[in-house]
Design brief:
The chain has 290 residues and is of the alpha+beta class. The chain is built from 13 helices and five strands. Residues 37-87 form the HTH cro/C1-type domain.
C-alpha cells in the first residue's frame, strides 16, 4: 500500500469513528421514530447533509476513494465537532503535509539535550524521539520510572512500556488516562508517516498483546499536549504530584525533552529531593561494586 493510500484509508476510519460518537440530537437532527437506529451515531447521509455535500461524495471519502478540499475539511471538522488536535490530524491525513520528507534514519540524542539532561541533578528528564522512542534519560528519570538501560534499545519506547511494563504500569493510579493520552499522541505520529515500518510493527505488536491498546487505538483519539500534571505512586518515596512539560529541539523537531518538576514547598518537592539522594547513593554503591 502506498503512503497516499494509507493516509486515505486512515482518514476514512477516522471520519467513521468520529461520526459514530455523535447522536442526531447533538447536531440538531431528529432521531428515528421510536428512538431506534440500525447504526451507532450519525449516518453517512446525515454527515453529508450537515456538511452540504452529496452522500456519494462523503461515502467515497470514508472509503478512501476521494480527496477532500480544505473548505470541505473545515466543514467536516465543524460538523463532527473536532477539537484542535483532531482537526490538525484530519488535515495531516488529507495529505496537506505529504511533501514532508520521510525521516527513518536512526535517531541520536542531540548533544545539547544530552548536556542539559546531565545538568538536571534533581529533575527527572527524558528525551523522546519519533514514535515516543526513549533516546536518553538522566539518573533521576531512571530512579523515578525504571532502569532504561536494562531494556533493549529496540524496545525502549514509552508507549510500549506504559502498556507492557508492570513496574511502569504500577506507578500510575490513573493508568487508564495516562495510557490513552500517550496513545493519542502516538496516533499523531501515525498521521505524519503511516508507512513507518517501526511504527507499524509497534502498533501491530501492542494490538496483539494488549486488548486495551487494541480497543483505544481503534477509537482514533488524537492529542497534542505540551504541559500537564501526573500523579505517581513511587515504591521508594510514595505519592508524587509532578508537573511535566515538553521542550522541542530546534535542531531536530522530532526530539523532545520532557521534564517533571514539583511545586516548591510541597511534599512532592521534598520527596523528589529524597529520591535524588537515594539515586546518588545507589549510583555510588553500583560504582563501588564494579
Amino acid at each position: 500500500m502506498s503512503s497516499g493510500n494509507a493516509h486515505h484509508s486512515e482518514l476514512g476510519a477516522f471520519l467513521k469513528a468520529r461520526r459514530m460518537e455523535l447522536s442526531p440530537a447533538q447536531v440538531g437532527l431528529p432521531d428515528s421514530p421510536g428512538g431506534r437506529r440500525r447504526v451507532k451515531g450519525l449516518r453517512r447521509e446525515e454527515v453529508a447533509l450537515l456538511a452540504s455535500i452529496s452522500a456519494d461524495y462523503y461515502t467515497r471519502l470514508e472509503q478512501g476513494r476521494r480527496q477532500a478540499s480544505e473548505p470541505v475539511l473545515d466543514t467536516l471538522a465543524r460538523v463532527l465537532r473536532l477539537d484542535d488536535s483532531e482537526r490538525a490530524y484530519l488535515f495531516e491525513l488529507s495529505g496537506k503535509d505529504a511533501a514532508r520528507p520521510r525521516r527513518r534514519t536512526t535517531q541520536k540524542v542531540q548533544p545539547q539535550l544530552r548536556r542539559l539532561l546531565d545538568d538536571l541533578a534533581t529533575t527527572p528528564a527524558v528525551v523522546l524521539g519519533r514514535r515516543t522512542d526513549i533516546l536518553a534519560w538522566n539518573p533521576m528519570a531512571a530512579a523515578l520510572f525504571t532502569d532504561f538501560a536494562r531494556i533493549p534499545e529496540n524496545k525502549r519506547n514509552f508507549v510500549r512500556l506504559v502498556f507492557r511494563d508492570p513496574a511502569i504500569r504500577a506507578l500510575y493510579p490513573d493508568w487508564d488516562w495516562v495510557a490513552q493520552t500517550s496513545l493519542a499522541q502516538l496516533r499523531m505520529e501515525a498521521a505524519r508517516d503511516p508507512q513507518d515500518p517501526r511504527l507499524v510493527e509497534l502498533v501491530g505488536e501492542l494490538s496483539l498483546q494488549d486488548p486495551d491498546f487494541r480497543r483505544w487505538w481503534g477509537a482514533h483519539r488524537v492529542a497534542v499536549q505540551g504541559t500537564g500534571t501526573k500523579v505517581l505512586n513511587h515504591p521508594i518515596v510514595g505519592e508524587l504530584t509532578l508537573d511535566w512539560s515538553f521542550l522541542t529541539s530546534t535542531a531536530d523537531p522530532d526530539q523532545q525533552l520532557i521534564t517533571l518538576t514539583a511545586e516548591p514547598g510541597t511534599s512532592s518537592h521534598d520527596r523528589l529531593r529524597i529520591l535524588a539522594s537515594w539515586a546518588a547513593q545507589t549510583a555510588d554503591q553500583s560504582a563501588a561494586d564494579h
